[in-house]
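Ticket opened by: R.M.
Priority: normal
Category: complex prediction / small molecule

The reporter submitted a protein together with pyridoxal-5'-phosphate and asked that the result be attached to this ticket for the collaborator who will pick it up next week. Submitted input follows.
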Amino acid sequence: MKVDVAKNLSKVLEQLPEGVSLVAVSKFHPKEYIEAAYQAGQRIFGESHEQELRVKVEELPKDILWHFIGHLQTNKVKYVAPYISMIEAVDTLKLLKEINKQAAKCGRVIDVLLELHIAEEATKYGFSIDDCRNMLKAGEWKQLTNVRICGLMMMASNVDDENQIAAEMNQAADFFDEVKRDYFADADYFRERSWGMSQDYRVAVRCRSTMVRVGTYIFGPRVY
Ligand SMILES: *Cc1c(COP(=O)(O)O)cnc(C)c1O
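Result attached by the on-call engineer:
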């Protein structure tokens, strides 16, 4: 293995304040890399392709907590529903309903995050803040008793300007406070602010992230 996964992992963990959890993003990396991180104590891993994840789940320890962090097509939900620990990137009400339906079939309640689109890039998925606010206001989600909305997730723009990155993350954090106040004031489980990747996780922890998703910094560049 060319990369010292354990060392990189501990470097990231050192920089995370108390209460911020690490999702080790292992997409496109072989299982040996995941095993190395697992040996070093890491338990939460992030993947973004259903088929790749399915193979890894079969081969790797059963106490790994898998987070689905990519865009999940509704027709793939049924495959991840039996085992997924958290679906981070819920970007439509339709997807939320499908997760609810498949979770019910498995007799589970699945933890999810709502993905916000705040970044300037046009290609990224997610609710605009207005759409998210309207979706929550409409209230249909309250009937979905087999999903548990645990917070918000976002990706900042892929830019060098730290001020812009921080401004986007702070916008998400402010919106989190609004949603918490309006809908989840008494729900302890609504507490996750998932932002920060290899490039910007240090900014993210200053912008109230509770969950960073770091891949390249730990495992090296992905080979597609
Ligand atoms: C790939 C990915 C990451 C990790 O990105 P790195 O730059 O490798 O740290 C984080 N979040 C999401 C949603 C991703 O798809």
